[in-house]
Design brief:
alpha/beta
Length: about 325
């Protein structure tokens, strides 16, 4: 496959390794029943449905027949950020900040962000690396007190031109329209260097083995058809020593808080979806899919089964969400 044309040489080299023909898709035939929200569907039906949502958004198959993917996406995208803020009272932004701080990337890090079409993690990654790089440059200048002002200025400007220190982030998402929105946001916010976008399935990533330093998936693994296959792919594309990080809604252990959370989830969130986005069903699915998702210890065991070591998790807000972490050794 010809190298993907990108603005930076390293990004071109990285994406030239993207495989043009992924391995034969596994498990596409209708198989055992699995859950889609609270519905029982075959694996093929869930895969078909899963193509039309991301994080908080889904349409059922009948709606997909009546509307094009673009129309479905447009009806949701206009209120996407508003709905995220409304449902979580803006706390989702803090959760994503914590994920990137836990990652603690340094200049030169190669990140794969899966199901990250809107760019939320990618933009935070770039900001974080830029801040680290800026501190490094300031320390470097302070250690050269014998330089003239002109030399300090020239050195600073030269180093600052590479504000990411060769870091790259590849955003991979199965939803073409979500990638379009992410690109639009990147353009609007001024992100261009060190950022690329790839259409791909978390269960069949279009990348070679041992490519990335870090793999992240935020509010996306819950929506894949086969979590075990997505975890295997995460392990495959990470370099030895690479890190897996997953931010996902989880299970609240406190009984009283759990009841209050259920009340809010089932009685308030779908109403917000209808009032703000005009979409009750998508947000009803959100709540149902969270309840069906494996609890923390079960997901931890699945990550270990995929081959990761030193697997642990951190509960945020009493387990409403959790960050799972593991390393490829």
């Amino acid at each position: 496959m010809a190298a993907v044309r990108l603005c930076r040489c390293r990004c071109r080299a990285l994406l030239s390794r993207v495989r043009g023909a992924p391995r034969a898709l596994r498990g596409l035939a209708a198989g055992p029943e699995m859950h889609f929200g609270f519905q029982s569907v075959t694996e093929e039906e869930r895969r078909e449905k899963s193509c039309f949502f991301h994080l908080h958004v889904v349409t059922d198959l009948s709606e997909a027949i009546q509307h094009t993917v673009y129309q479905v996406f447009e009806s949701v995208a206009k209120k996407y950020d508003v709905m995220n803020d409304s449902m979580t009272l803006g706390i989702h932004r803090v959760w994503k900040d914590i994920l990137v701080h836990k990652m603690n990337p340094s200049p030169g890090t190669l990140l794969l962000d899966v199901a990250g079409g809107t760019g939320d993690i990618a933009f935070r990654f770039i900001n974080y690396v830029r801040a680290v790089r800026e501190r490094q440059l300031q320390r470097k200048i302070k250690h050269h007190q014998d330089l003239s002002w002109q030399e300090i200025f020239e050195n600073y400007q030269e180093d600052k031109s590479d504000s990411l220190g060769d870091s790259q982030v590849v955003v991979c998402d199965i939803n073409r329209e979500m990638l379009k929105v992410g690109k639009q946001k990147a353009q609007h916010l001024g992100y261009s260097k060190g950022l690329s976008w790839v259409l791909g399935n978390a269960e069949e990533l279009p990348f070679d083995d041992d490519m990335f330093d870090v793999y992240t998936i935020a509010f996306g693994i819950r929506n894949v058809t086969r979590i075990d296959l997505a975890l295997e792919e995460a392990y495959r594309v990470l370099k030895p020593g690479g890190r897996f990080l997953c931010l996902e809604f989880s299970h609240v252990s406190n009984p009283l808080l759990s009841r209050l959370y259920d009340l809010y989830s089932f009685q308030v969130i779908p109403v917000l979806g209808e009032v703000i986005a005009g979409d009750w069903k998508s947000y009803q699915y959100l709540v149902e899919s969270i309840r069906r998702f494996p609890p923390q210890e079960e997901l931890k065991a699945m990550i270990e089964d995929a081959g990761f070591f030193k697997v642990d998790y951190e509960n945020l807000n009493f387990g409403i969400v959790a960050i799972h972490s593991g390393f490829k050794l």
